[in-house]
Amino acid sequence: MLFSEAAGSWTPVPPWVSSLIRIGFTWPPAAFGHRRVALISMPCDSAAAGFVTLGAMIRDLGSAVASDIDGHYQALLRYARQYLESCRTCNLRCEPRLAGCGYITEASGYIRSVEHPSQRFQVSEETDFSAPQIAFVRQGVTYKPSAKWAAKYFIEGEPPPELAAGHGGTLDAEYGQFVDGAEVLPENLRRSYSGLCLSGRVMGAVATREGLASIRFRSESREYTLPNLLAVRGWCAAQSVSRCVLFNARTARADGHTFEPALTVADGDASFLEAIDRPEFQRSDVIGVIPRTIDRDRLEGVGNRMQEMRKWYDEDPELTRRFAPVARAIGVSVLTRRIHR
Amino acid sequence: MNAAATKIFDFLSAQDTFVVDRRVVSLIAFGELRHSIRKLVMAFLESDDADAVEISDGLRTRLSEWLTVPVPFNQEMLEVVVEVLGNSDAVLVRWGSDIRRLYDSARAAIDILQRAENPVRSTLRSAFTEMALRAKPFKIYCHRRARPHFESILTDIEGLPSTGGLFLHSPRDYENTDPFDTLVKVGPLRARGWGSAPDAVISAPRFATLLQAVWSSCADDPDFGYDPASPREWSGAQSDSPGNSDERHETSGGSHAAWAIQVTRSGEAPPAVTDLSGTSDELAIFSKLRKIREGRSAVLVQVDAMNGILYGARARVLSFDPDPAAREPIAYRIPIDSLREGMFVVMPRIAIDLGGVRAQHGHYSQIWKLRLQAEWRRAPNDLIARLKAAGLDLVHLGPAIEHWCGPPTSVIPAPQKIRHFEMLLRVLGIDEPSPKTSSQHSIPTWKLAWNEIRHSRGEAIQTGFLEQEIAEKELLEVLLRLLPEVRRLAQEHAGFFLELPVGCGIEGMFLFHFARGLEEGFTAPDADLKVVRPLGVIDRWRD
Fold it and tell me: Which domain does B80 fall in, by range?
């Protein structure tokens, strides 16, 4: 695999990039009650958060449980409930903060078919949450799919949970080549997953993407930009599947409803501080990536927050060692939530 | 993304050890000057008198500058002290014999210093000459206003490239630069205040050698080079050990680079004079003093050669990006983060409701300025005498009056203090009360005029006149409608104002200030934020 940065010449993937991808890849699966928070400090502004996310994504591609299939029916029901009980009658579309409804994005009530994406359904009042049985309607016909067939439908504006084999829109990059020993389950290349989150730069989603777009990889036959590899919804027109949710740190919104991250990689100090404290991320491990070139106030903002967390978290040198060798000039600190018995 | 990260990593990997070439200079006369000024600063600070605190701030600012900028030792140093304190007799009358003794000591030291070149300047000159001879690429880290002093040294040296890319003024400048050989820095390594530099100078060096010219007893911050992922002490901060030179080593590990610190001393060793705090490091002492006083972290937006505006470090500032490719030309931006050089800061000037009386920008100023101009033309000496008799005791009153006579621009030129302004208008005979307002409270004209000045200095929003959130949205919408006109004016002017059209729902105007540069490292009280101030005044909030 070859690497190029800022339209520079092609070189072997440099050690600093490999070590960041390895940190993401090596990051252990989330353990209930053992939330972990890591801080990676870089000697310069860089696409480091993207590399860590890529590593974590490759790790997830090898995991049989890393897909949204299992919880998809419940996700549809949650969406239907939000639409029917809140958004449908709300006068403050879509200002969740002002409305005080507790949601983070609007539920429009529309459902799409995976096999015929042009077909649009509306969540119906016949939905029964006690059964539970979702219902939606199209052209006067009511549909009540069971949980078994739920994967045939998806929330409008979100990626489908699973595409049929051979269907366009699946991931086709050679992810296994980025990390020695990585195994990719073929079915995961056509399944979406919302357990991994990239919390972008505070400048917004476009700036985040542009920051990552200067990075390219090339194998013998293919060339990829880093945003293409990350499989964020909308970052690659040819992909329908999403393996990484983008949280916009500027608008404080995720790019979808199905948003239960197990690992969040935050790009920059403001994004990191936001991710640590927001309720949506309280069950997620968080890896913050910051450049050390920012001013002292911002460095101290991060340092003080890490220091505060030490009341409930312990240093985790064992996990830090698992990332070795980390390229020179990259600082890593990992805290793990203490369990009180 | 700025300088390619791989290039930075390659550079860091290729360096086994980075070097601090610390050149410590000392002079007995400069030591005496430091000692006298420090004592004056502390003495004035203990006073309850507002003027004394202002003098203390002025002296602190000047000494901090002398310790961190390669200023020439010339008559200006003396003028600065006289400007702040007045002449020797006036000092005795106003402040007593102890202060007079310190004042005279400072003046005597300045007299001696003027006989030779500032050793920091000669140290830099020889270093620049050597680097030019060896064709070593170097850069200078300093704050923007220190740059002319460095340039005055560089002009004498042959073989230097143009000074265009030589200077780094902010962490962002540092971030954007490719690796080079030597970074030149005057003063100790400090994270904040006078002579401050980014921690990355130590934690993420972009150069092989740091050439640091520093006055004796000025120690680096012990936590300089701070990395929140792996904090550690910076041993460059150790106090100067005796002898002409020494060498220390910092080991590497994790994110930390390995540093070798070479210290060379020159000049006359001054007698060690310490305060009760046990240190003679004025910058450290002043830093502690500043921490005691209230203030918040602020960023300077320099709007022209003489003026700037301080904003809270994470403030959202209404701003205009003239780049035609900008996705959001008008938006609320955070200084340094998203508000950058070359953009415009936008200051809304919305009419303030003063219990029924509306102070419009320039209304009252036209009245009192006309009277002031007439009096100044008629008998300037008489006017000065009357003002001094009334208690307006500024040292350079004549030039100040000329300044106040000037027409309103982005701000209304006027005395900085409300007390002085009241005296001015009383002397001019403009102190009759205004017509009664709807609430039947009469307001003196000078107060209305002062409100207008405060308004012009950007305090309208701070007073909470508008509900912030609603106002922000409305202002954005109005500005977006005016975008074509804003773009046209921005092409023609570095600063301009734009009247709000009738019927847009808000009455007033927008002032656009071109952001020439942004700089962190200030701690200022709320009253000094979002206000156009002379850079000389803003300097006192460095720290």
Answer: 27-116+275-292
